[in-house]
Amino acid sequence: MSEQVFISFGSNKGQTLEQILGAFKHIQALNGLTSFKASSIYKTPPMGPEQPDYLNGVCSFEYTKSPEELLIELQKIETLFGRDRKKEIRWGPRTLDLDLLMFGDIQQKTDFLQLPHPGLHERAFVLTPMAEIAPELVLPNGQKALSLASVLHDDSIKKVYTAQGESIENHN
Fold first, then answer.
1. What b/e sequence results for 97-127 when a residue is b if at least 16 CB atoms lie within 10 Å of its CB, and e otherwise?
2. Which residues are catalytic?
3. What is the per-residue pLDDT across 3-36, written as a single tens digit (0 to 9) for each?
């Protein structure tokens, strides 16, 4: 049996667009994964210390293995693209950040994994691209992704690339 999974992706250090597109290829190659879909890629201001803007978005797919197995695979992909969790600053620059947002209807909290992601309902830079690919998705708090994205609307979040990495005209 497969579950619908949502992952946020982000990068603001190194070759950001290339790292995100490379991560897509690695994610799509995972065993047990089908129906991959990615949002547009958005330029967003960072949370935390002063640093460059991020490229962010959300992808979704069907997955047949466990959330823990997926998280391990996502962390391997982050490492492949230069992320070193031991040396980074909390909310600091990242070569690649892959956060597991939702895994079907599973709700759990362990030292290794919390589902849904604890910041999901508060982050426009996650909800805006999530609503783009799944506007009718009902979040664990009972709200639709599109409705919550509208409430949290943030003009500083700009769509700059398609999911294939093609530039979207008229962005600054």
1. bbbbbbbeeeeeeeeebebbbeebbebbbbb
2. 83, 94, 97, 99
3. 999 999 999 999 999 999 999 999 999 999 999 9
Q: Do residues 108 and 126 touch, judged by C-beta distance below 8 A?
A: no
Q: How far is CA 57 from CA 110, 127, 150, in A?
A: 25, 9, 16
Give me the domains of the chain, ranges plus CATH numbers: 3-114+155-161 (3.30.70.560)
Place of tokens 């990615």: 38
Write out the two tokens for 18: 């290339």
SS3 120: helix
What is the per-residue pLDDT across 41-69, written as a single tens digit (0 to 9) for each? 999 999 888 899 999 999 999 999 999 99
Question: Is the Cβ–Cβ distance between 73 and 29 less than 8 Å?
Answer: no
